[in-house]
Structures are given as structure tokens and as C-alpha cells.
Amino acid sequence: MAIVILLILPFFISDYIVSVLLNILMWIALTESWMILSGYTGYISLGHAAFFGVGAYIMALLWRKLPFFAIVPLGGLSSMFLAFAIGFPCLRIRGPYFVILTLGLSEFTKYLFINWEVNVSGTVGRILMGAPDLHIFYYSMLVIAGLGVAVASWIRSSRFGVGLRSIKEDEEAAESLGINTSVYKWLAFGISAFFPGLVGSVMALRWTYIDPYTVFNPIVSFQIIVIAFLGGVTEVEGPLLGAIVLTLISEVLWAKYPYYYMIILGVILIILVYFIPTGILEPLKGLIKSRVALKWRSS
Amino acid sequence: MAFLVGKNISKKFGGLTALHHIEFQIDSGEIVGLIGPNGAGKTTLFNVISGMYSPTSGEIYFEGNEITGLKPHLICRKGLTRTFQIVRPFFNMTVLENVMVGSFFGGAQIRSKAKAEEEALHILKFVGLQERIHLPAKGLTSADRKRLELAKSLATKPKMLLLDEVLAGLTPTEMSQAMALIEAIRRELGITILIVEHVMKAIIGLSDRIIVLHYGEKIAEGKAEEVAKNPTVIEAYLGEEIQV
Amino acid sequence: MEERVLQLIFVGLIIGSIYSLIAVGLNLIYGTMRLLNIAHGELIMVGAYTTFWLFTLMGISPLFSLFLSGLASALLGALIGQFIFLPTIRKTKSVVVLESNSLLIFFALSIIFQNVASLLWSADIRGYSYLTQIVKIGGVPLMLNRLTAFITALIISVLCYLLLQRTMLGKAIRALIQDREASQLVGINTKRIYLFSFTISFAMAGLAGCLISMFYEITPFMGLPYTITAFIVIVLGGLGNIMGSLLGGFLLGLVETIGISVTSPGLRSIISYGIFIAVILIRPKGILGRGV
């Protein structure tokens, strides 16, 4: 039902709202895929901006050489291959060390690209001309987000998902029950990198200008974490709520008060981690149910 | 027939020798007890057999195939499963889901969720947890958590179980129930068992044979009565008279 | 030629002395509480800006505002330790969850600091001139501000060493680093030590920031590279090993300076993050594992 609305909506509303929805869909896609690794296995990644950036650069390099709908999957695949390539050594690292490792890898990638750009092409940024219509971006992102939600949801209730979640609960016990934990983590890592790659490719063209500082910005990873914790890191519907909240706050603040926006997000994250680490989705649902029940009883 | 064989197993952690030239052989269908004072190396031996540690030297054979140094998940799939001394349930998953992990990923490698659930329910009935299947594991009592640990390991369809102090902390009633369950595991499911225990009565009651470790070395082996009378064993336990 | 090498060594030691301070601060919190303060660099930034404004607005010499920067950072450390982290440590039962959650909280704090600084003082690069006279040591020309920073850093390092080796507080800290449970058993008030660790750690970062501001430009985003460097030092020097950090800082300063001179300054970030990643991946067993 909601999908039908989302499909026909752009024809009835202003371009501004479509672009807001586009952003919400983008964050949903990014966070759902982050969840496949970090929510399910507990290996929290602060480095997903790297996969986003790789996707963006694939678009920057191939735009005008290949059609849009061919480049975007390539962006996703490139990020996925990168994740598979570095996955095994990285996933042997546990806990907070994995977290800072991912941050380090993301920054490392950023500086690699900066260096490469400066030395090879002389400039740091790239301009992409001839971008398609807003609606194309919207529908692309709708498909990507939908796919992300579907994959995250399917995994959660599948045998693979049970394996991932037992890794989060107790990795050694999981292994002693027959789970090949190394391979499972590696698979989750690769899958979780695919969607940021897709998203990065699309957004690079949407923004028409990219440079390593923006597409590899840890702020991207930061916002993913805030959204994830808002909704509850293992709830498939969580990112939907989180993305909406984040985008609303960002719409109000980002243009004029970017610093306030970041500060507020930082405070929100601290409050969430400290007080409500399982996210506000469940409590919110409970609250709504009890309100509805109250109203129903009193009517 | 020799089921689990350990040849010349040593394990060193830096300067500390936890296991020193351990030799053992467990035959199919046996229940063998492994005892020794605290720090003797019993859990270390389990960790080495089950793949959590690699031995510094020595080999381990299961059903004639060498399993030395294999990763824990592979050893489990071959039919050798261990339980943990301090039980490790998946706290935020239900009892049923906990056991399904074993069904999915253990020796049976079940792919279908429905079949895994069916198997898990069967095992939960066997251990007596059928009333609790939808409870989150963190809500279980201590004794029930031990049943769950047992159930998880049974779900992996083991041919042999390594039980690490499953009886610790149980009341006398719970203990006789647990012992009956362990005997039923051997009798009805045909599973060979190597069990570490501190409760002497229980281990003497359950075991066909007993191996005694002390400071990482095997100091005695044999039937319960022989071992109980062995002066080296008695000395290791500081003069405790073991009542048979 | 020889003068050039000597200059490299001096510069390496100077920057190394600052790295030592930063690394010791990071290692204090890690050693006592097993927490990774990824916002450490931002505290350096706070110290740097405090010094900058005190100098630019009120003409207070950085050497005097050393105390003020240190004090301001120490206060920040006490507040954050007391109101955010002590409750978190108390609340969280699982060690794994505590370490990860604290990291996220520190990360959020770093973002908050960066943006508060940008808000208050804009994101522009700032700098001030102080003690820019050239002095010659062993025939090598050095700016007086760097020399001053070096000597001050050395003094602080010696004080820190004395604190750890000669005072009861220092002994308690070292005991806690070695064995938390045993420390509690002998009656050490761990909560108070945690608070002291936070305070001293943040203070050292603030002091380092003050010294850095004397001869480097500052921005709200200057912090992370220092955190990364500090982290490299503490892993290589030994997690929880304060002496190792003191020495390791100097060593890394030397290696980095010489390394940049034979490659190129543009590669600095790549090399730094590359070493950071390598150090985490190839860590000696037991130092970064659960066994610590």
C-alpha cells in the first residue's frame, strides 16, 4: 500500500518534497545495509562512507561512457568487491578495535583518493554534467531502498540471519555449534557494502559535483549510526523511522545552521547509547498501541 | 573401537605448560569421566580437542581421522560437540531459537527452518524444556540454562559429547535428573561422552572409566574403584578420601 | 648535509615530545578503564583554541595560558568523566558492550566538539605569531617557539613520570592498570582513580594543544590525525604501558619527520592511516585481544 503511494506521489507533489523523500530513501538504504553487518553481527562499522565514496567515484569515472542504469550496479559491485577483498583480515578484529579500524580504513581511502586526484587529474573535485531528471533519481533510490529493506528483512528471518545474530550474542559459542563465523561475517560485510555503493553512484550524479572530502566524509557514517540507534539496530523498520526523523531535523537545520545540526545529532546519539540503546522504535510502538487502546476503550 | 584418540598432546601458553604429553583413547559408546583438582587442565584439554586452541604438539583423531588444529565449527560438524563450563546461551534469543542454531549449523546442517524447528522441539522435549520454548534464554533459571546448553549441543547431532561441569551448582534433585538425562543420552541416542566433573559421586556413578589429570599431566586412569584407591590420586586431592 | 640531518632530528624530537604527551593521555584512560577515547584529538583542539584566544584577545602569553588550557581541559575531563562515563561504566554489565558504547559516545563527543568550535570560532584556519625568533642549537636554526614547546613538553613529561612513580596517586593508577580486581581488593577507590585519569588525560591533551598552537595552525578539525598518531604510539609502546608511550612518542616523531623528508608531505596522511591500520591488523597476540 505504502509502496503504491510512494510510486505515484511524485506526480502530485512539488519537486522540493520529492527531493526530501529522495534523501529519506537514501538514508533508509544506507542504514538497512549497515544493519546487515553491524546490527545483526554486532560488528559496528564507522566506515561505511568508504563504500559510498567508491560508488560515487565509479559514477564519476564512467558517466557519459555507460548508461546510468549500467553504472549504478557497477558502483554497488565495486564496493562489494572491495569489502570482500579486505573483509577477512578486518573481521578478525573485535569490538571497539573493529570500530576504529573501519574509521581508519575510511579515512585512508579518502586520502588515497585525494592523493590520486591531485597527482593524476590535477584537481580535487569532479563535475558531472548532464544529469537526468529528479524523478529518475527518486525512482532509482526507491528501488534501492526497497531492495535494501527486502534484503535486510529476508536475512533477518533466514538461516543466515540466525547465524549472524548468534555471532552477535556469543561468537565463540556460535562457532562451537558449527557456524563458520569467519565466512558469515565476511558475507554480511560484503552484502552491507553493496547498497552504499549503489547509493553513492546515484547521489554523485545528483549532486553533480564530488570530491573525496564530501563523499568519504565520516559524517555520512555518523548519520547512519544515529539513524540506526534511533530505530533500534536490529529492527528492519527502524531505519525507516530513523531516516524520517533525521531528514526532518536536517531539513530544518542543515541549510542555515549546519553546526547546530551536528551538535544535536551528537547529543541525540549520546542519549540513545546511554539511555535507550535498543532504539525508540519499540517504545514508540508500545506508546502508540496503548494510546490507541485507551481511545478505543473510552469511545 | 577407538573413537577419540589423543596422542602426546601438549599445550603451552608462553612459559606456562597447561598440558603435558597427554595420551588417551575413548571407545565408542563409553562414558569416560575426566577429573582433577582445579587448574589441572581439564577445560584446556577440552579447548584443545574442540579446536578452540591448537595444541603446541601432539595429534587428535576422531573416528580415525585427524582433527588436530581444525577450527571449532568443522569439528562440531564432524560430530564432536562440547558444552561450556559457564553456560553460554544466546541470551536475547528464545529457547527454541537457541536450539535451532544447533540444528541448523551442527552435524545435521539442516537448511529448512521448518525442519530445524521440528528437530529442536524434539530435543527440547527430550531434555524437559518443552514448556519454555518461547522464553528468551536470559529468563531461564540456572538449572534450565544447563538443560538448554545440553539441548543446543544435542541439536548438532553429535556422535560424541564433551560435557564440561554440567552438574555444578545443581540441587540434589536436579543432579539426579541431570545424571539420568546423561545416561539416557548414551543409552537412547548412542552418544559417546567425555565428562568433566567435580562432584565425585556423580562421576563415579556415571563413568565406565575415569581419567585423572593433575598439573597438566595424566596421573591415573581406570575403573572408578581403582582410581579412588590410587595413592597418587588421593595425594593430588590433598588426602581427600574418595568414597566409592 | 650534516646540519640538515641534525635539523631533522631536532624537529623529530620536538614533535615527538608532543606526541608523547598526547599518547600518555590516551593511554591513561585506556590503561585504567579500557576505553578508547577517539575524541582525544578534539581536546587537543580545545586546548589550542583556548590558548589562541587568550593570546589574541587578551595578550596572555601561551606559556601562562598553559596552566589555563590545562585547567580548562582538566575541568572538561572531570565533568565528562563524572557525568557521562562513570555512570556508563556503572550501568553497563558487559565489557564488550561497554567498550563499544563508550567508543560511540566518544565519537559523538568528538563531533560535538568539532562543531561547537566551528560555531564559536568559525572553521577557518587560525594561527598566531609567538616567539618566532630564530635560535641556533648546534649550528641548526630553530624557531624559539618550537624550542620552548619542546622544553615545556619535556618538563611536563618528567612531572608526569614523577607523578606516576613517586606519588600514591601514581601508584594507585599503575596498580589499576595492572590489575583492576586486585586493586579493588587492596582498597583502591577505583571510581576516584577513574576520575583522576580522565582529568589528567584531558589536561595533558589540553597542554599539548596549547604547545601545538604555538607553532602550528589550528582548525576545529585538527584533532583526528593526532588521535590516530597517539593510537599508533600506544599500541606500539604497549597498551596501558605509560612509559612505553612516553618513549614511543619521541620515536614516532623522529620516524615520521625523517619519513616525510624522504617521501613527501602529501603522503603524510596516507602513511599515518596506513600504519594505523597495519598496527591494528598485525597486532601482537594478546595485546588487543580479550586477554588484556
Q: What's this model, at a glance?
A:
The complex is a heterotrimer of chains A (299), B (244) and C (292). Chain B has 244 residues and is an alpha/beta fold.
Strand order of the largest sheet of chain A: 1-2
The N- to C-terminal Cα distance of chain C equals: 46 Å
Instruction: Estimate the helix proportion of chain A, in percent.
Output: over 70%
Strand order of the largest sheet of chain C: 1-2
CATH class label of chain A: Mainly Alpha
* Net shape of chain A: globular
| Biggest pleated sheet of chain A | 2 strands, antiparallel
Strand content of chain C: under 5%
| Residue share in β-strands of chain A | under 5%
Largest interface: A-C, 41 and 40 residues
Look at the helices and sheets of chain C and give the structural class.
mainly alpha
Q: How many helical elements of chain A?
A: 14
What is the CATH topology descriptor of chain A? ABC transporter involved in vitamin B12 uptake, BtuC
Question: Could you characterize what this model shows?
Answer:
The complex is a heterotrimer of chains A (299), B (244) and C (292). By secondary structure, chain A is mostly helical. Chain A has a single domain, classed as ABC transporter involved in vitamin B12 uptake, BtuC. Chain A is built from 14 helices and two strands; from the N terminus they run αααααβααααβααααα. In chain A, α3 (49-62) runs parallel beside α5 (95-121). Chain A starts with a helix and ends with a helix. By secondary structure, chain B is of the alpha/beta class. Chain B has a domain at 1-78 and 192-244: 3-Layer(aba) Sandwich (Rossmann fold), CATH 3.40.50.300. Chain B is built from nine helices and ten strands. Chain B has helices at residues 42-49, 72-77, 95-105, 113-127, 142-155, 172-189, 200-206, 224-229, 231-236; strands at residues 2-13, 16-27, 31-35, 57-62, 65-66, 80-82, 160-164, 192-196, 209-214, 217-222. Chain C has eleven helices and two strands, in the order ααααββααααααα. The longest helix of chain C is centred in the N-terminal third of the chain and has 32 residues, at 2-33. Residues 285-292 of chain C have low confidence and may be disordered. Classes of the chains: A mainly alpha (299), B alpha/beta (244), C mainly alpha (292). Chains in contact: A-B, A-C. Chains A and C meet through α5, α11 and α13 of A and α3, α4, α9 and α11 of C.
